[in-house]
Structure formats: C-alpha cells, structure tokens
Amino acid sequence: MSRFLNDRLASLEAYTPGEQPQDKAYIKLNTNESPFPPSKSVLSAVNRAAAKRLRLYCDPECKVLTNSLAKLYGVESKNIFLSNGSDDILNFAFMAYGDMGAIFPDITYGFYKVFAELHGVNTEIIPLCDDFSIDSDAFMGKNKLIVIANPNAPTGMALALDTIEEIVKSNPDGVVLIDEAYVDFGGESCVNLTKKYDNLLCVGTFSKSRSMAGARLGFAVASDALISDLEKIKYSTNPYNINTLTQLAGAAAVRDNDYYMNNCQKIIKNREYTVNELEKLGFTVLPSSANFVFAKSDKISGKELYLKLKEKGVLIRHFEKDRIKDFNRITIGSAKEMRIFIQKTKEILGEF
Ligand SMILES: *Cc1c(COP(=O)(O)O)cnc(C)c1O
Questions:
Q1: How confident is the model over 121-146, as pLDDT tens digits?
Q2: Which residues of the chain have pLDDT under 70?
Q3: CA atoms of 305 and 351, how far apart (whole Å)
Q4: Among 86, 292, 294, which residue has the most ligand 1 atoms within 8 Å of its CB, making it the best to mutate?
C-alpha cells in the first residue's frame, strides 16, 4: 500500500474470491460454477466474426440482450438493467442507496460487507436463527437498504416468496435488494413482485445457472425509477461495461433457456444424491435450494476435510468464520464429480 491511499480504502478489507487454481485440474466444487458447458448457440455466437467486432465499442444500451431478457421475464425493457456481473450491480446499489444505512444477515455473501465499507455505509447485521434460517422478522419496518440473498449463501436456505413480499411491504421507504444468484436451483423468484412494488430490486446473474461465470454478466429487474438510478451510475463510471462477446453470448443463452433450466434439474438430482450420501456418512446438511450444500461432520473439522480433499484433487470452500467454521460449502457438479467427491470423503473419514 502506498502512503497516498485515502483512509477509507487503506482500512478496507477487500473480498477474497474462492481459489481459481491454474496449475492443476481439480474437481472444482468451490465457487458454484456450472459443470455444464455453455449452450451450442452460445459457442457459435462467440465466433471469428464476433471477435472482429471487438475493433468497435460495444452497444452501451445492450439493446438485443435487454429486449430478450425482458421478454423472458415478462417485463418491459425499461425494467431491466445489465452490468458486468451481478457484483457490479450490488456495488452500484450500495453506492446509490447506502445513505439510508444497510441491513443484512451475519452469515451471507461476503461481498455485502465489503461494498458497505467501500462506500462508508452504516450497517446493521442480523444474526441468522439457530437453524441458520434468515430471521425475517428482524427486517420488518427498517426502511433501509435491505440486502438478502435468496436462496442465501453459503447456507443454501431459501425464504418463501410471501415472506419476501412482507419485507418489501413493510419497508416502503427503503430499497429491498433480493440477490437471486441461486434462484434457478429451487428458490422462488421475486421478479413478478417488481411490477407491484417500486422499492424492490431483484438481482440475477448468468454466472451460476447459465454457465457463464467467466463472461461477467449480471442483471437487475425493478421499477423504471430504480433502473434509471443504476443507469445513471453506469453512465457515470463505465457505459461500455459489458463487452461485445458477452452481449452476444448472453442473448444466445436466453434463446437456449430450456437447455439451462434442464441443467438445473440435473443439478437438483445430483444435490439429492449428495445430501443423501453425506447424511449416510453422518454429516449434518442444511436444506439447500441452491447449487451447493453446506455440511458439517462431527468426525472431522471443516478445515481438515477441506485440506485433505484438496490433497486428493477435490476443491471445496471453507470459511474460517466463527459460527460456520465446522462447515464446508460444496458446489454440486456433475454426477461423476459428486461420486468422486463422496468416494474421497469416505476415504478420508476411513483414515480416522
Ligand atoms: C456468485 C454470487 C454473486 C456474483 O455473481 P457474478 O454475477 O458472478 O458477479 C452474487 N451474489 C451471490 C450471493 C453469489 O453467490
């Protein structure tokens, strides 16, 4: 760090992304990517002709992609915002609405805290209940920027749509941001509620269910007033923040929506298999509506299991955080990957 950095950034603790090792081929169950490749139309959209268009600036309005997403979700184009990954949108939301103070659970996506600090936002942290569910009552009548991942990460547990609506209704003077990164794996989307409530910001991503983590594409669905706030920030920072290839890939992915939703069904099946096998091995597994499970064993610590699996070529995610350090978050991959994960876990437990 230089002596020139401002005080707020000097004391900021940056987000630590999951490991993305480039040295050897792990079975990678640590950052909730899809085990399935992008669809055929995506692969053919990102071709030589598309690469030649990189000479020119991309469409800052992302018209084609915006219109196709609007159609998919049954809203108007003015209710869709696109950005460089949904992290970008979360960042914009803390920037735009942080002055009212922000409130989110203690155990949730680690980036919320980072964005709050980055923008000097006062935060109220609500502990999860003892069963690791979100204490929804604690979010009623706050009229702040409310940030909830639904399903939550890293627990995988979801809130019912009715509960989300109660939270939105009871905070008419606050913005309620629902982060739906994992909604396609069994959660209930609040997209339709955005037509009824002008304070609801529904955020999604192409990184998980749509096999495009490396392309960086996130979206928001909300009232036109909230969307124009986000547009204002985008046009004040980087209007060209979604590159040409990602725009083409994104539009192709929307055309192949059935392929991706079908993949989600496969993930759900593999999740059921994994939960079942882990429970047979004595693990406690939280009820997951996401493409990962959060599990702990009383035979081995979370850290030890993570390290031993890594030695055996399987990467999972461990968080060294008080309430959850006994747990590991395990991404649900292909059927074969999950069989290997279970096999290696059995070997490790057998050594004890
Ligand atoms: C993965 C994830 C994101 C980030 O998605 P990107 O679109 O890749 O930036 C946002 N929120 C949650 C809860 C996530 O797990």
A1: 999 999 999 999 999 999 999 999 99
A2: 352
A3: 12
A4: 86
Residue 82 backbone dihedrals phi, psi, to 5 degrees? -120, 145
Q: 218: Cβ below 6 Å to ligand 1?
A: yes
Nearest CA to 269 among 332, 224, 222, 322? 332
126 CA to centre of ligand 1 in angstroms: 21
Ramachandran assignment for 71, one of left (phi > 0), alpha (psi -120 to 50 degrees), beta (any other): alpha
Q: What is the pLDDT of residues 188-210, one digit of tens each?
A: 999 999 999 999 999 999 999 99
Q: What residues does each domain of the chain span?
A: 7-37+258-350, 40-256
Distance of CA 86 from the midpoint of ligand 1 (Å): 6
Q: Which CATH class is domain 7-37+258-350?
A: alpha beta
Task: Quote the CA–CA distance of 198 and 331 in Å, as a whole number.
Answer: 34
Residue nearest (by alpha carbon) to ligand 1 atom 1 = 181
Level-2 CATH architecture, domain 40-256: 3-Layer(aba) Sandwich (3.40)
For residues 322 and 306, the answer to whether their CB atoms sit within 8 Å is: no
Distance CA 16, CA 14 (A): 6
Give the length of the chain. 352
Q: Is the entire prediction scored with pTM above 0.70?
A: yes
The Å distance, Cα 33 to ligand 1 centre, comes to: 10
